[in-house]
Amino acid sequence: MEYFGTKVGPGLGIGKVLIVENVSLEKIPEKLINSTTDEKKKLKDVINNVVSDYDKIISEVQETDIKDLCQFYKMLLLSPSLVAELEETIEKYQVNAAGAIKKVLNNKETELSQLDNAYLRERSKDIQEVRNKLLRKLIGVKELDLSLLSENTILVSKEINPTLLLSGHLKYVKGIISEIGGKTSHVGILSTSLGIPSIFGIENISEILEDNEIVFVDGDRGVVITDMTNEDIKKYEVKIAREQEIMSELKEIKDIKAVTKDNHRYHVCINTGDLTELNKVNEVGADGIGLFRTEFLFLNKITPPSEEYLFNVYRSFAENNKNKVMIIRTLDIGGDKKCPYIDIPEEANPFLGYRAIRYCLDNKDFFKVSLRAMLRASNYGKIQIMYPMISNIEEVIKANEILDEAKDELANSQIPFDRNIKVGVMIEIPSAALMADTILEKVDFLSIGTNDLTQYTLAVDRGNQRVSKIYNYFNPGVLKLIKMTIDASKKYSNKQVGMCGEMASDPLGIILLVGMGLDEFSVNISRALKVKKLITLLSAEDCQKITEKVMKMTNEQDIEIELDNYAKKVFGKYY
Ligand code: PEP
Ligand code: MG
Fold first, then answer.
1. pLDDT by residue (tens digit) across 334-393?
2. Among 3.20.20.60, 3.40.1050.10, 3.40.630.30, 3.30.230.10, what is the CATH number of 247-574?
3. Mutate which of 183, 184, 513 for ligand 1 pocket (most atoms within 8 A of beta carbon)
4. Phi, psi (rounded to 5 degrees) for 341
5. Long-range CB contacts (< 8 A, 24+ apart) of 221-229?
6. What residues contact residue 208 under an 8 Å CB cut-off, 6+ apart?
7. What is the pLDDT of residue 139?
8. Residue 452 Cβ contacting ligand 1 at under 6 Å
């Protein structure tokens, strides 16, 4: 059988299905119904149960790393001060065992995650792990511990929880299949950057597939293949091996520059929000970070991160990568990304609502904390600031005024920063694309966010499967807005235009974008090498001709067929 879904993470994977059940740990009731004595007993029991789980892992696994980690978790759980604090919390706040676990461990996690010391900061993830394990045990959820996988596995779920992917231990995870989520959902972006072939949006797939059956995930075509014969399995294994060969070949030439056959040079940067990826920019020979999604520093916390914490994150990249740009996007919260401490009431249309720059402009002091952190880091390297979700010129002017205030504050306190720091705007709302020339009078660069630009131009929710067929950046209307934005920047010799939406890593998109004269392609880390290679196989002049032809076409299907034919010719085995 073949099941088609949305292509999310590229690549091929084969393995045994593991169905992951979804439970929202945040929604577990905290109200005290039994006596506090009962809850304290429950607490002790659950701690003992989790400790014996860790003991079991320690006795079963070979790897010393895993044994050490489990010992560490045990030590945390058995610390007398932790148990005392949990018991006190039950009494003081009159909550049940789950309520105490959440309160105490969330606080500890936040404290650690904001420290300067990298080692201690890492430990905040351990607190989260222990917290979740206790809560899952309390409500009797089937445990999923990826560190225990020992054979190639395909995770299948209604909805994949991003923390599962952040937990590491992904060696045996060869694919992800999920019912919910689109290509540009945040878990989608994460699985892509981790390089895991992923397909989302297949209805009921977690009920159709069964644990342990072998399936093949083709993330490039968006198809899951089941009921395979032994020959099929062999055939797909050979295919995977060939793909891996290409990737290792690309790794060897990681330092090649993205220069076309007729000598046009493009910048290839990465999009990330994951701190572990900051050190990997050089592994793919990228020119820098074209989009740093700061919201990942704000989500999953119970209080906002401090200026000091943000500054240290940005400074550490700037210091270690003196010649590489880091474009930091100011907070893009709201829509599908919510923070407990940012009070955005429920809205009928959150994607059209109070989010991103709209929230920041109304909450000046909050906004300035982030801006000061970015400015301070600019003293150590090539930091640039970018505003998301701009819909009119007034927002740009107001954001720049607040930025000027932040600069004055630093100057008055004699704190150094780059006085010529570059500021840019994301073009992701049609009105901004139409006004790109005016916006460029106020800023130094633009970056086209096609994930949202497509959503807002076509009035199609980027995460809604039912309308996902309409969501297509090759729609001629979307292409016109992209071209208009690029053309606007060409009126200035010193203002660059990049793209940080997913279109920038689509082989067919690359042909058009080279043809239109985009300066910078910012893509997920797992795609950067391939994007560079594809650019080297093109001629800018030929791409311009194709672009001219495509811009006269009236529907996306014809456009894709035209580009697909050309891609087959020029990209060969890399397509
Ligand atoms: C975009 O909208 O294209 C973009 C890059 O931003 P995000 O996916 O984070 O909304
Ligand atoms: Mg966006």
1. 766 667 688 777 788 889 999 999 999 999 999 999 999 999 999 999 999 999 999 999
2. 3.20.20.60
3. 184
4. -95, 0
5. 221/7, 222/4, 222/5, 222/6, 222/7, 222/8, 223/2, 223/3, 223/4, 223/5, 223/199, 224/2, 224/3, 224/5, 224/177, 224/199, 225/1, 225/2, 226/1, 226/2, 226/3, 227/1
6. 3
7. 84
8. yes
| DSSP code string of 406-473 | HHHHHHHTT----TT-EEEEEE-SHHHHHTHHHHTTT-SEEEE-HHHHHHHHHT--TT-GGGTTT--T
DSSP labels for 310-356? HHHHHHHHHHHTTTSEEEEEPP--BTTB--TTS-----S-GGGSS-H
Residues of the chain with CATH 3.50.30.10: 2-22+143-229
Q: How far is the CA of 121 from the centre of ligand 2 (A)?
A: 28
Looking at the chain, which residues constitute the CATH 1.10.274.10 domain(s)? Answer: 36-138
**In angstroms, what is the span from residue 550 Cα to ligand 2's centroid?**
25
Please indicate whether residue 360 is annotated as part of the active site. no
| Residues in the chain, total | 575
Task: Judge if the beta carbon of residue 184 lies within 6 A of ligand 1.
Answer: yes
The CATH class of the 36-138 domain is mainly alpha
Torsion of CA 345, 346, 352, 356, to 10 degrees: 40
Q: What is the pLDDT of residues 266-279, one digit of tens each?
A: 999 999 887 778 88
Least confident of 11-15, 158-162, 402-406, 558-562: 158-162
CATH code: domain 2-22+143-229 is 3.50.30.10
- Label residue 569 exposed, middle or buried (CB < 10 Å: 0-12, 13-18, 19+): exposed
Percent of the chain with pLDDT over 90: 66
pLDDT at 166: 57
Q: What is the pLDDT of residue 161?
A: 67
The pTM assigned to this predicted structure is: 0.75
What are the C-alpha distances in Å from 499 to residues 183, 504, 511, 514?
16, 6, 14, 11
Q: Residue 29: which residues within 8 A CB-CB, separation 6 or more?
A: 96, 98
Annotated active-site residue 169? The verdict is no
What is the model's pLDDT at position 336?
61
* 307-337 confidence digits (pLDDT tens): 999 999 999 999 999 999 999 999 998 766 6
- Rounded to an integer, what distance in angstroms lies between the CA atom of residue 327 and that of residue 381? 11
CATH 3.20.20.60 residue ranges for the chain: 247-574
CB of 428 sitting under 6 A from ligand 1: yes
